[in-house]
Amino acid sequence: MKYTELPLIPFSPPRMDQAIIDEVIDTLKSGWITTGPKTKKLEQQLTEYAGHRKTLCLNSASAGLELILRWYGVGEGDEVILPAYTYTATANVVIHAGAKPVFVDVLPNFNIDPDEIRKHITSKTKVIMPVDIGGFPADYESINSIVNESDIKKLFNPSNGHQQKLGRILILSDAAHSLGATVNGVKAGNLTDVTVYSFHAVKNLTTAEGGAICLNLPMDFDVDEIYKELNIKSLHGQSKDAFAKSQIGNWRYDVLEAGYKCNMTDISAAMGLVELSRYDDDMLLKRKYIFDRYTNGLKDYAWAQIPEYETDHIKSSYHVYMLRINGVSEVYRDQIIEKIFAQKVSVNVHFMPLPMMTYYRNLGYSIADTPNAFIEYAREISLPVYYDLTDEQIDRVIQAVIEAAEEVIKERSKA
Ligand SMILES: *Cc1c(COP(=O)(O)O)cnc(C)c1O
Predict the structure, then answer these.
(1) Residues lining ligand 1, judged by CB closer than 6 Å?
(2) Is omega for the bond preceding 351 within 30 degrees of 0, making it cis?
(3) Domain 279-414 falls in which CATH fold?
(4) What is residue 4's predicted lDDT score, i.e. its pLDDT?
(5) Where are the domains of the chain?
């Protein structure tokens, strides 16, 4: 173990440099630290960046997903289709809303399988939540067209005004990983009805905690009106936010509903503004560079399956490098991970499918119903990707993976 003297390579620390520190300090000194001018500016810039119709920033992606489910009136008796292969936030918000998550199986690229979606649609289905795993967009072309098929539309059973107006299943994209990804040059945010980004500390654009709803509903929906409705829902149902109330003579407000509390602070927005201003030309380029270097270092090994992150018309946001090891079981994959960590390299697994988690197992879900999700999970290892990763560190990661994989495969062939 020749690397043990070296410091641990972390998995995905945030990029925190002087530009971010300066912008945060500027906010701290400005006299306004919660939702205010910087949050509104970030919303405008995100709208310009991805080209959808309107953006609302919040304190997390989870809050954004849940607000949209509630706005669409999803609740008791309804079903929401989502991939078994995702982070638990995607499913937990469905539970919070009182509806039933319907887990479906995934394609070899880890994303939800449109044919499996079709098989699981019932008259109770209200929303489909595709997830752009690792930053690679789901197949929105197929998913957008499935919900518009006449037989599928006939099954749809609207129970309120918004559902009646849309007249079909809503597509709510979990783009926690995929800000910056494109399909035919169109950015995530703009690929379906509603998209939600996450700016959590491990995501590729971070505000420490944060998220945003990108509204891209059909043109007969008034997105300015929906923005107001969602904003009210995010702030205890108040008719005005704290910034509006702070203006001269503007103290009076009303409470329109028992809303939630999930607004973004200007301190967070300050980080987001700096990150977004250099996202395409700096952050994404660096991430692509790291991806390509891993690919070049690993592609010649028969046991290494390189993740899909670029095609002729699809580009990832290069969020997670999801390597798979060919021909190993979960146990051997775990041994490889242990040996990689022994060389002071942090790796991870994205994700253990949700039907394997205690809470969902206890609800009666079984991984046997989504066999592909298990097959991909059992041989997946996510490699570190972050802005400050150096060439020397990337090469150390590659070397650690090669040594660990070859050792375990050799021991296994003897056994
Ligand atoms: C991180 C993540 C979320 C949740 O994001 P938060 O901003 O932490 O709420 C949702 N879905 C996926 C796939 C994620 O990785």
Answers:
(1) 60-62, 86-87, 89-90, 131, 174, 176-177, 198, 200, 211
(2) yes
(3) Aspartate Aminotransferase, domain 1 (3.90.1150)
(4) 65
(5) 18-276, 279-414
